[in-house]
């Protein structure tokens, strides 16, 4: 009996030594103490078992991760600021280009403009994320500011993916259907309704879930940024529900539409090559109400819808860039011990807001030309100047 109590006393002493930072107080029991046997009265205010103590000393190194490394946070915040500046300038150029050239004022580019606005919203929120990362004492502004920034960030990202899905449907209808069908679907009113939906649905999801008690938007003390309060008991449920309600369907639409476009183009090209002729489709996606018809011309096979195919390829690159920026974060979320890399993968998502204008400038046949004249301040050489640009010239 004496050996047993001595062993237990050594064990409790060892446990108290192993966990000096624990808030639990362990009482060493001497072999000669009259309280050698420990009863339920020994700890009147604590319900502690040996199993729970052992579990607390064997937690993994990533358990309870907190992004406390200030050097990493400062580097990340600096990168975010630089990306937000590049993205802001690039997306403003996209908006100006569409405003200055009638050649860019097409039905498809309504969605491109919408995507640029969503990216601008992301660029606007990014500096506030940098402020949170730079701060050494938590969020330095009112909590409502952080909550709103988190909401805008979620909505902007969700709007981007839904706009990309809308663009893919637009290109699919334009390339695979008749012009009459395209014009009947993409009327100004219907396009406006589509744009409103790309903003309204994400806003509804992001705002309603916290109202229903699922998650809480605000400062994350774990990741030191404005996303959602990760200490909230339903934080994980918010992440799961918001992701499930927003991302899967647009991603499926994206890949299905572009796959069908690819099959349609390759199939038609083979058919035309077999007949020794090609078909070139004029760009009929302008808002102009002037009558236009599909014109068929005998040309070399490679000329089939060359302009529309190039524009579609450019927009597909935008989709690839979005998926490439989003994929690391999505993969990190699915791997449980990946907490240390989640802030970095989340930062990569912001890169997408700056990449799109670069893709337009490098690949899009119309944006490329207008961008070149804008950067060289040769506004008089912009093709098909808009009414706004003509007024500026006349002054």
From TrEMBL:
SUPFAM superfamilies referenced in this protein's UniProt entry, alphabetically: Family A G protein-coupled receptor-like
Entry's Gene Ontology cellular component terms: plasma membrane
Keywords: Cell membrane, G-protein coupled receptor, Membrane, Receptor, Transducer, Transmembrane, Transmembrane helix
Record flagged with keyword Membrane: yes
Main subcellular location: membrane
Entry-linked SMART domains: 7TM_GPCR_Srsx
TM region positions: 74-98, 110-137, 149-170, 191-212, 244-262, 315-335, 341-362
Keyword Transmembrane part of the UniProt annotation: yes
Membrane topology: Multi-pass membrane protein
Location(s), subcellular: Cell membrane
InterPro entries the record matches: GPCR_Rhodpsn (IPR000276), GPCR_Rhodpsn_7TM (IPR017452)
Gene Ontology MF annotations: G protein-coupled receptor activity
Sequence ranges assigned to domain G-protein coupled receptors family 1 profile in this UniProt record: 90-360
Assigned protein family: Belongs to the G-protein coupled receptor 1 family.
Protein name: G-protein coupled receptors family 1 profile domain-containing protein
Biological source species: Patiria miniata (Bat star)
